[in-house]
Structure formats: C-alpha cells, structure tokens
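Worked problem 6 (solution included).
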Amino acid sequence: MKILGVSYYYHDSAAALVWDGDIRAAAQEERFTRKKNDEDFPQHAIEYCLKEAGIKVHDLDAVVFYDKPLLKFERILETYLYTAPFGFFSFVKAMSVWVKKKLWIGAEIRKRLNYCGKIYYSEHHLSHAASAFFPSPFQDAVILTADGVGEWVTTTIAKGSGNRIELLKQIRFPHSLGLLYSAFTHYTGFKINSGEYKMMGLAPYGSGKYTQKILDHIIDLKEDGSFCLNMDYFNYLSGLTMTNAKFHKLFEGLPRKPESLLTQRDMDLAKSIQEVTEIVMEKMVVYAMKITGLNKVCLAGGVALNCVANGKLLKKLPIQNIFIQPAAGDAGSALGAALLLWYHVQGNPRTTDEIHDSQKGSFLGPHYDAASIEKMLCEEKIPFTHLKDEDIFDTLAKLLDQQAVIGVLQGRMEFGPRSLGARSILGDARSPSMQKRMNLKIKYRESFRPFAPICLEEDLQTWFDCRIKNSYMLLVVDILEKQRISMTEAQNKLFGIEQLDIPRSPLPAITHVDYSARIQSVSEKENPFCHRLLKAFKALTGVGALVNTSFNVRDEPIVNTPQEALICFKRTDMDYLLLENCLIKKVTNKVTSNVGNG
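Solution. The predicted structure is:
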C-alpha cells in the first residue's frame, strides 16, 4: 500500500511517502521553492516523493491530509464571533482565503495531482502524535504533543501501544504553550515560527527575572501540567497582534523593534519564558507517565523543537528513553498522517526492537550522484579535485585541523529543520574564534547564537552529560564538569553578551555560555559518512567532535541541490565545498593545504 501524506497552507508544507509502513521519502516544500517556511501546496515535494519511490500518481492507494479543514474553519469562525466587532478586517481577509482555497483541500489535491483515488483527513494532533510514536523504537510509550494550535487542540497527552494511539488528555485553543512562547518571541523583536530558536539561544545570557510574573499573571498552571492563559494580555484572538497594551505595561515597555539593539531586558524575557516552558513541560510529562505507568516518551509539535526543554526533561525526570520527531513541526505531520493511516486506521502490525527507530536518520530527501555533479562543474568551468571514496575523510580532517570551514553536500537531504551531516557546514570545535567567524562571516546572523557539536556516539559521554544517543540534534545537555573551564572572578562579574567570548571548555566553539551544547551523536550504521569523518578527525587531533551547522545563510532554507550549495559557498567565507566526491577550494582562501584545485 502506497500512502502519500501532505501538510500545507499554514507553515512549513511538506510531503511524505510511506510504502507498506516503510518511510520511502519525505521533504519540505521550502527546499525546492527556496521560500523559507513555504506554506503553499507542496507540489515539488510531492513530485520528489513519487520520483524517489519510482511511482506515478495513479499508483497511490491513498492521500492523507494532516488535519481537518472544517474543524479548523469552525474554530476560526467561532473565535471571530466571540471577539466581534474587533478583528473585522482580519476576519474579512481570512474568510477570503478560506472560501477560495482552504476549504477545498480534497478538490485541490485531485486537481493539482490529477488524482482520482481515496483522500483521508487526520486530526492535527493525531498526526503529530503518529509522527513521533510510529517511527520510534518503542512498543509502548507516552506521547506528548504541543504547538500553537491545530483545529481546536493545542496540547495532547496520548498513549501509544503497538499500532494504536489513544488520546488521554487535551488542552484547547486559545490556551496554548506554543502561542505563549510565540507571543514572547514577537515581543522581543523576533519573527514568529523562526525566531523561537533565537529566543532559546538568547536565554542563557539572561536571568529569570520575569518568570514568577508570568506564572502569577499570564498562565494559570496546575500540578498536572494543564493550564489556562489570561487572555486579557493577548490580542491574537482577534487576529491583530500577539500582545496588547496590558501585556506591555506588565513587562514595562513596548515590543522591541526587529533588528534593534538587544538589551538585558530582552535576555531576561527570553530566559523567563524559557523557564516557564520547561516548568510546564516537566509537569505534563510527570503527569503523563503517572497516568500511563510508562517511562518511555515521544514528543512532537512545534514546542518539541525546544531542545533546551527536552534536555531538561531527560535530566530531571525518570525517563528511560525519549524519541523526538526530527521534523516535529507541521512538516512532520505529513509523515504522521501517512503512518496513522497505515497503522492506526488500516490496523497493520508494527514491530520494534526498543533500540532502533525507523526514521532512517531522517535522510529522506533528494540525493545527487557524483557523475552529474562533475558534469555540472565542468560545464560551468569550476575547478575541483575529484577525491576517491577512501581519501575523502583524511583530506577533510586535515583541512578542518587547519581551521578550514567546509560546506558539505552528500547523500540524501535531511527531513526536518536540522542539518545532520548531509547538508552541513563543518568547522573545528576546538577553535576559540570559530563561533564568531561562522556567525558573522558565513551564517550572517546574530553573534550570540550558539553552534551545535556533532560527535561520535562512542565519545558522547566523554564530553557530555547525556545517557542516551541523540541522532537528531534535539537535546541540549551539559558539558561534563571535568571538561569545563572555570570562570575567573572578573569573568563572573560580566553580564549578558559580555560573557560571549569566554572559552568554557576545550571545545569553545560549541559550548554555550551556560556550559551547554545541542548535541548530535552519530553511529556508523545511521550516519556512516559523518562517523568516518569524525573517526579521521579524532585520529589526527584526539577529538571526535566538530561544529555542525546548517548549510544556509540567515533567512534562507537549507540548500538542496549542488547548484544551491555553490551559490551559498560563493556568497560566504567558507573555505572549501565538498559536493559528493568533488572538492572545491575558494580562490581567495587563506587556508593552506596540500589539496590542489584539480
């Protein structure tokens, strides 16, 4: 049975192809259109999935949409009626889009794909839950989903057993942990649905000055993790803005203007909402484990991309193991919807080994062979060196040891927001200047933002306080005490961004100001390319870890094709670019090497 799952029209549209329960392909539309968080119909992603599986549209047995449009339309109508006459212009604009497009999902799928088969609709949070549980290695697990809002639901607790998912508890709109975090994202001058990562990176520079104020005035939190928001402080019901004058008065100022200077107040706000998020998540997971009697946890929904909160859960709670959907936002729901039909609706059996997930390292996107890349480079008269397979890793290791920054495009593209070694920019984590250089000269983003380490799975506990592997860069953990560099008395008196350039471990490029790191551990089975590269680097330097950041610049999607990788390479201060077996050296490169230009 060949099932196509799709999600679109809200943000981060995507498609996924599941064949008899096997995940064959999945990709976000933004990677093809180059429009970040593209929400439009995922035409290109669908075409890719079909091509990768070697089938045509008429071979599909079913198409599944990731939520129920009529239920969502009902919520929007009721919300506008509740807030009338406020939000009238927003209402008119929304209704125009709904009447023209969003109510006719089935008709659009049939028309755009020339498809005549069955179309199913999944509930939004069931799609999220399925995306986390069914690819997980667990036969039984607690499932927690949390995001902005689906149809009506914003948060769920569920139990997964075999091929079934049972919803146990839910929180409904307008009470939403995702929207609460987004409100503070907006208030501190960042863009909703992308600036949340910046808030997480900014939080360690601040103090929890406003944490109790949020708990006292903004959110009514119960011991079981259920909560209500005080809507007197928000404007999103009427669709105008996230926050209002009462909110601004409570936090003593107007929203920060985007791109303006960050202040200590902004850092304190980031820290405070991060702490509240962690408190809420912890209470929910504790309650979920209590009512199910299970200690294996699956997470999905946009809030599950809060890797700081995820790491705190694992550190503080008696969780045996955790699986977080790598594409935890709406993109992953395309995959969840397809898996839900195969397992939950069709009742097909599901087997697991409690160790290995079925996400395939999340390497589910397009790949490009070396021969076609060489042909393209020759046609464009771009000098390159062809490396034999056995020479790639020692060559890259030597360049990285010489402080080169290398863009890498190899194998199938990642599904989800993280680069995991297939579309990555790599650097030496030992370098005290690498974090600043990558932020300002390559990524063109804020200097405060941390970078993540990629490390050998067998070396994980040499550097990090982490008891489980993490293949998908979705956990922030602490650097081990024995690896930390203590702060001097003078350094301890510094505040905010003043703390930025102080080395805190022998891997300063990936150690954040609070001695934390967002880890990615790699095994030989799941990620053979990165495993071999790290082994070569360790043999040369004694360190089996590197900086790994996404192959893109600020406000652009991660690169997909070799051509896009070349454009990004030329625009930045990267030193080398590896396109499968083809190594390209920047003409103005200051790094010396024995590797020629071909």
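Discussion: The first strand starts at residue 2 and ends at 7.
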